[in-house]
Amino acid sequence: MRTRAMLSTFGLIVGAVVTVWGVPAMAATITGGDKGGADITVADGDVLSGAFTNVGTFTVPAGVTAQIEQGTPFSLEAEEIVIDGTIDGSGAGQAGGPTSAGTGVDGTAGSGPGAGGGGTHGPCVHSGGGGGGGYGGVGGMGSTDSANGGEDFGGAGGPTYGTESGTDIAPGSGGGSGGNHCSSYDNTDGGAGGNGGASISLTGTVRLNGSILADGADGEDGATDPDFGTPGGGGGSGGGVQLDGTLYLEGTISASGGDGGDAGPGQFAQGGGAGGGGRVKITGAADTGAGFTMDVAGGAAGVGTGDDTGAEAGGEGTTHVDVADIVEDAEGPVAQDVVAEDGEVTATVTDVGTGDSDLVGAMLVVGDQEVEMDAVDGAFDSPTEDVSGSYDPPEGDHEVCIVAEDAVGNTTETCVEVLAEVTTSAPAPAEPTEPAAPATPVEAQPTFTG
Q1: Quick check: 317 and 297 in contact, CB under 8 A?
Q2: Which residues does 51 contact at the CB level (< 8 Å), separation at least 6?
């Protein structure tokens, strides 16, 4: 059996991040790595960073929100993952395009393979809105001022990437910023693009009663000017969420696109394009409750003013669900092909067909003798194991029993009767006798008569 240790405020985590004996610790950044089977309980505001492996039980309590570090994909492999609160990776994916420096310049494209483009600047005040980022769905194009002869195009919407049903998962891409006005006005900066949503991958027994969020961030609204508002930035695309294992799903998974930024109040101001939806992939075995929801909608387009073509909404993302029903394991493993001879016992122990859980051990029981059996391959780590053990044979007939246990605690006893060997003695050979002496001949005497 695996030995677990609760992570404390020392060693594996930067700062005090776990709840120890009911005392809440301060929020901190929890970094990934091999946790050696330790349990992790996050506190409100903790930031999760990187890839976590070999975790015992990972818990997000009700009322607690754990953030994903921006720009760093989060993955978790644990025996059990309990999410009663929220894992929030909204806006924690690829960065959106910042507002460009200077006046009368184009906006800046976002980051990532589905980055939204920056809006182009107009002759002075007709700059285009930023484009939305794409991932599972395409990003929306930023708004263009059609009255200006097409010189101030909105930023292009970002393309899709990745697969709908493969094992890949990725963060969402950032939206582009709006173009900047010329220096003749008080406010010239277009709105910044929104970040994409995070990449979140969970593997193990997952109990989702709360929320997993990987939404794209909204594009920033344009600035207000007494005469001409500036364009909005493009929204970031939704990120990626991947769950694999034994899944009990009652909560919410969301990887929706961010909205495009609205134009600042004033004439000829353009809205930003919206981010496309992300990707959600669920595989393994699942028990899906009535309250379970998934959202990969594209964002809403930013609103412009004046004579514009209108920014575009983001495209719908994708969901892929390929799961079997969960079969609860309520039966223990059984021992087969038991051979007991001269105090040595071998057998095959299996949970296949009785729950299919991995085995954790087997005990040899003979009378008051109890002996732990060995897995022939060196470890109990699969649903079927060849086992061996030895005992001190008692006199006479006796019963040999094997008690096997699976990973969920089910046990079954299998017994066989061992008969004592009985030896029958052959009769002793007869003692040899001396041969009888030959008879002495008697000479006949003549008889006379007168």
Answers
A1: yes
A2: 32, 33, 73, 74, 75, 76
